[in-house]
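Take just one protein record:
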Amino acid sequence: MSPSILRRLDQLAVLLLLLWAGAALGFGIFSAPILFRELPSRDVAGRIAGLIIGRLDWAAWAVFALAGLSWGGRWVAEVKDDLVGPIRLWSAALTVALLMCLASSFILTPKIQAIRARINAPIETLAPDHADRVAYNKAHGLSRNLFFLRILLALGMAATVGLLPRKNPEAAPEALS
């Protein structure tokens, strides 16, 4: 790929990562606390927040996958020489982000939904040591942690996309001599 195409892919990756991180932070810091404070029931607030998080999860899949386009064009040509470098670190961050999306979308969210469907009552009506409430709190806490870790990964990846190499080292003039 040419350096100009890579530069455009980098700009697209930065834009998408920052947009998603901003939407996620906006929800996590501003909207969610208001939902839980203003709505008459924490259960209703949790259901609405869960729907929003579900959409943010699917958006995260798209954003991290599209950000991978910036990485994909470089991997084969650039990874040969560096033991640890920008490509490998970015690859690790991208892999971890996609694994978090997988865990959130296909493991934690269905588990939370199954618990809610099984009890068919607000979570706070259960005793604090009830098995369903404990399982719900554990899954919800892990989901929340993965959500904020993905935000940090998105911000870190957006900040470091400019460090990814734009030239094929084998095509550089000094490599030919």
